[in-house]
Amino acid sequence: MSDPKPYRVLLFYKYVPIDNAEEFAAQHLAWCKEHGLRGRVLIANEGINGTVSGTVEQTELYMKELTRDPRLADVEFKIDPVDHHVFRKMFVRARKEIVTWRLEDDVDPSQVTGRHLKPQEWREALQRDDVIIIDGRNDYEYDIGHFKGALRPEVKTTKEFPEWVRKNLSEHKDKKILMYCTGGIRCEKFSGFMLQEGFEDVNQLEGGIIKYSKDQDVQGDLFEGKCYVFDERISVPINQVDDKVIGECHHCGKAEDRYVNCANPFCHLQHICCEECEVKFRRSCSDECREHPENRYELDNEILRQREEQYRLEKEHGLKVLNNTDEHHQQT
Question: Boundaries of each Rhodanese domain copy (predicted)?
Answer without folding.
Answer: 127-221
